[in-house]
Amino acid sequence: MMYIERWWGEYIGGTDDTYTLIDYFVSREFELDIPAEINVKNILRDFQLTNAWEIKDLRQTKDIYFINDNGHRHDIGCAINLLMDVTAIILECQKNGKVHLTDLDGGIMDKDAVISLKAEKEELALLKKMLGDFIHHPLSYDLAELCPEDDMSEIAKQCKEIMTELNM
């Protein structure tokens, strides 16, 4: 059972952006039952987020994507979805050391790859800053165009709980 199961699947971990992130993970090299260590710094770089330290850069999503080994571009619709998912997965890895991708996608994948996300202080600071802003100003994010206000409040509440669990 995943530690993050109480949050994963509806608002966090249940979006099209989640499946884009899972596609990103699947494109990595894996060995059976040995967690592939993935540095959050690389995720941010591969999704074109290395210069996204300004909150305004992530409130309205623009040009956030990764290109797989076949040259196909995979776009993110709402940057905050990506950051919420990555933060939740960091928590899972902190508590259990790893996560099976089949747990993240609800068991629909046929490849049971295992990952472990590693985040340094700099990446954790960025996630804390961005999720903190989202918690206080959820309606300022482009996700609010897709979700009712009550849902946005619930998502912000869940982000706060995850941050508390991570001691952020």
Shape: globular
Helicity range: 40-55%
Question: What kind of assembly state do the chains in view correspond to?
Answer: single chain
What is the β-strand count? 5
What is the fold's blueprint, element by element?
Elements: H1 16-26, E1 36-39, H2 40-46, H3 55-59, E2 65-67, E3 73-75, H4 79-96, E4 99-100, H5 101-104, E5 114-118, H6 121-136, H7 149-165
Parallel strand pairs: 1-5
Antiparallel strand pairs: 2-3, 4-5
Helix pairs in contact: 4-6, 4-7, 6-7
What does this entry show, briefly?
The protein has 168 residues and is mostly helical.
Structure description:
The chain is mainly alpha-helical and 168 residues long. It has seven helices and five strands, in the order αβααββαβαβαα. The protein has helices spanning 16-26, 40-46, 55-59, 79-96, 101-104, 121-136, 149-165; strands at 36-39, 65-67, 73-75, 99-100, 114-118. It has a three-stranded mixed sheet with strand order 1-5-4. It has a two-stranded antiparallel sheet with strand order 2-3. Strand 2 and strand 3 (73-75) form a beta hairpin. Helix 4 (79-96) crosses helix 6 (121-136), helix 4 packs parallel to helix 7 (149-165) and helix 6 (121-136) runs antiparallel to helix 7. The two termini are 24 Å apart. 36% of the residues are buried.
